[in-house]
Amino acid sequence: MTYFLIALAILGVGFVFSVVKIVPQGREFTVERFGKYTKTLSPGIHILTPFVEKIGRRMNMMEQVLDVPQQEVITKDNAMVKVDAIVFIQVMSASAAAYRVENLPYAITQLCSTNLRTVVGSMDLDEVLFQRDNINSRLLTVIDAATEPWGVKVNRIEIKDLTPPVDITNAMARQMKAERERRAVITEAEGEKQAAIARAEGAKQAAILEAEGRREAAFRDAEAREREAEAEAKATAMVSEAIARGDVNAINYFVAQKYVEAFAELARNPTAKTVIVPAEMSGLVGTIAGLGELVGLAKEQQHGRAETRATTRQPAAPMTTTSAPPPQPRAPRNPGGAVPPTT
To answer: Of 71, 141, 312, 318, which shows the fewest CB atoms inside 10 Å?
Structure first.
């Protein structure tokens, strides 16, 4: 009796487990009645008819990632490349995925491989290397349409790796290096161009400022010469008025000034090693005496004195040298030939 009860308990537990089914979240189970599909169980607890219904397929309804193995593909321009990819799929209909295709992951993988060969083989190598997005979109359109009867939605297809041949890789590296060097040369040329423009602009501004400086200096020089000429004209007019009034000292002053200036220029000449002093220095002394009288008259006129004073000056003896006999005394004269007046 004990063994019978234990066996009955075991049969009861097995009966319960065969009748009561719990479907986890993200899964769906198909139910078969005598081997025929009847319904699909969603996540939760379900009770089946004992000895009649059973679980057929347990389908994963979550998004899955399938790896497409690497394969060699010949492009349109006869270049051999190695390509692999990954596919993101999701089962939308458990019954279609369970009963319309055998070994769903393998079928999708082979479908992706064949279509990958077709798409890559219809493109040039440059297009394959630089248009991955175009390849992905074309593969997605084709494979999604092919897997729709299976109740599968293909969400994304991504090219994982593209490996061209070694010789093509080396050629691409040289091409990239040449392109980089070309860009470097262009950039350097642009920099030199900008530097040359900047230097030219600086030289232009410097030339303009220098020209403006020369113009300002010329203007100042002309103004100074103009003022000097005006002063000279006024002095000449004053001397002329003094001569017109009969004042001989004025013309003596004018002539003595020119004489002294000329002698000073002669003494300042850097090329002259010897300065010849005129022997008739008495004329210069007489001229200086006339200048003194002219200054005295000007002071007397300024203080309003009416009387004049007479001055008599003896002319200085002319200069002599040890090698020549002393000259005979003669009357002093100024450089212009006029005799200094005496009072």
So the answer is: 312
Instruction: Evaluate whether 64 touches 88 at the Cβ level (below 8 Å).
Output: yes
Bridge partners, 46 (sequence order) = 21
Task: Look at the block and give the residue holding tokens 């990239």.
Answer: 176
User: Distances in Å between the alpha carbon of 178 and those of 158, 165, 172, 186, 198?
Assistant: 31, 20, 10, 12, 30
Residue with tokens 């900047």: 198
Q: How does DSSP assign 22-82, residue by residue?
A: EEPTTEEEEEEETTEEEEEEPSEEEEPPTTTEEEEEEEE-S-EEEEEEEEEEE-TTS-EEE
Residue 305 has pLDDT above 50, yes or no: no
Measured between alpha carbons, how far is 36 from 34 in angstroms, rounded to an integer?
Answer: 6
Long-range contacts of 15-19 (CB under 8 A, 24+ apart): 15/50, 18/48, 18/50, 18/54, 19/47, 19/48, 19/49, 19/50
Whole-angstrom distance, CA of residue 338 vs CA of residue 286: 10
Bridge partners of 68, per DSSP, are 85
Q: Is residue 195 within a helix (H) or strand (E), and if so which, with residue range?
A: helix 166-244
CA–CA distance, 73 with 122 (Å, rounded to integer): 10
Q: Token pair for residue 180?
A: 């980089």
Question: Is 0.85 surpassed by the pTM of this model?
Answer: no
Name the residue among 261, 326, 268, 320 with its Cα closest to residue 287. 261
Residue 57 backbone dihedrals phi, psi, to 5 degrees: -125, 145
Cβ contact 204:197 at 8 Å = no
Smallest Cα–Cα separation from 55: which of 20, 37, 30? Answer: 30
Q: What is the pLDDT of residues 79-132, one digit of tens each?
A: 888 999 999 999 999 999 999 998 899 999 999 999 999 998 888 888 888 888
DSSP type of residue 304: T
Q: 263: exposed, middle or buried (C-beta count within 10 Å: 0-12, 13-18, 19+)?
A: middle
